[in-house]
Amino acid sequence: MLKKQSSMAIIVVLLASLLPVPKAFALNYNGRQGNAATFETLEEARASSLAAAATRETFGRKMAYKSHPVLDNYPKGTTFVYRSANLYGGRAARSNTNILVFSDKSFTRKEDAFAYLKGLGVVGIIDDVIGSVVLVTPADPKAGFTASDQKNYYALQTAMLSLNAFERVNDVMTAYSDAAYFGGFGFIYVVGIDGGATFFNNFIASTVDYAGRLAGALLINGKMADFYKVASPLPAYLVNAPESVQTRYKAANATDAAKGNATSITYFNQALPLQQVIVSEKANADPSVDVEKAYVEILSKTMRIPVLKQGLNSAGTPYQGYNLDQSPYSLSPRNIVANGVTPGGITVTAHQEDKFSGIKTPAGEYLQTWYEYVPKEVLDGKAAPGSVPLVLALHGGGDDPQAFVEECGWLELARQKRFIMVAPEHQALDVTPAMGEALQALINYMIKTYPAIDASRVYASGYSMGGIATLSISTSHPKVLAAAVNMAGARYDFTKEMDAQFESTELPMMFLTSAYDSPLNILWEDGSITANVQKVLNKFLGYNKMSPLSFDFNAHPKNGFKASAWSSMRLNGEDESDVWYLNNKNDIPMVALSYTENHIHALYPGYATVAWNYLKQFSREQKSGEIKYNPNAR
Predict the structure, then answer these.
(1) Which residue segments constitute the domains of the chain, with CATH numbers given?
(2) What's the pTM value of the predicted model, to 2 decimals?
């Protein structure tokens, strides 16, 4: 019964970005819970989570709530939860950062537990980045952490990661409330101290289902039994670790280079530098100092994103297949936002205004909320006028703009490439004519607001419903864009009015998909693209004055056509990603198809890189409107 219920939850989550949703979510959206900071026992947090969950968007579904049953037998008085003020909530709930602290101390009073966490410095960190701190102590304080505590960790992981999962009995859906209340998604980090570090090494790091979901760990004075090994690449800051422990973390991260100073040595993988191990030896370690250093050097720079099919590496566990049960997650770079600024010098500004209220859907909705991502040099007036590209980043259905920008890799890429981004909240605009008009108005506003923007290099890209929004701006106002990348959003009806837009213009377009993308895009039985994708490709071939394709999947099993050129790369050292290009008579790749192996319909940080590598090559001459192609553009 449990497996059937979990499977239903997965289906709903996977299709949420593809199905129509009620048109009442655009106005006054903020993606936050508005809560005061709280410190509770786990038992109190379970009870409090019910009322908090009831305030979430349900997209028209009638929903009951309960704490996850996996926690029903969790040992009382052993675990404490600190929640920072104004947590991310609703569609944005997975953006919360979580720090798990394993300590072999015990606390009979909450006040003492809270003072301990404040002394470590983790409360101050989580207040800045938004999220929760979960303090875990042994079920048996006298014995300390033992193998029996591992099942408690599994319960905690299951509850914290079951975001949007629910049970369904007949017509009644009951959602689990804990993940939205104090859990997260891919921003989970560990601090282990003394016996807590040893427990982590032996019983968590040694299991891929656990280690493969964690983005980094600080481990102080931790030992490891000889018969265990670290089961997954896991960035680690090790303080006073025996050489045998260091060796196992270095092996898991496949480190092949080292650098050091007077206080520490960093071992790292040259091809995948996030896979690193920092080793420090201290006679009298101050955990608060180590927390700060580990945060700056590792924990603020890494994240995990799930893109594989559910149920991998979790066979035999009672809740196998629950939502986000996809270990290992992809280990990816993070450009963390703290108090509206990233370490890479990108300022994030939220806007909620009626500037575009004159462009309404039939239901009266309009674009009211958007987020601007601007490099420091632009705000300081040091960027030359007309020198900085603009990316219009478009979230999927039932999704959050900020979560999309981070999880698709756009935020980290903006740090590297120094472009400006704008990410609107466009949920209720959907495929109405107001979508294209509002997005054009937003682009015009950005160009006017930031003179540094190069109006010849304005690009659009979005995932799922965001891919449909990309098609909307591309077919209603193609001349404002230099190129576009539609990520996994093939469901679209082209009209004669849209066709007419291309009588005097062209627009480079890439379609991005993956082996287990939505059934609208991919036939799962053989991994080939569907008629929906074929229609989009042929439409843009026609728009770019090129001949349509006749698809032959016997000769070309995945894409169905012979490309003018192709490229292949392994994204993040993980999965193969192919791009097939269709060139016009001038040998310019005006249409392209990107295809990544093994991935489901989900955001992935490597996708922004694939998109940018295509987009950056194009500009639009402002006077003539002609597309210019520069394969060496940066």
Answers:
(1) 35-245+282-333 (3.40.50), 346-629 (3.40.50.1820)
(2) 0.94
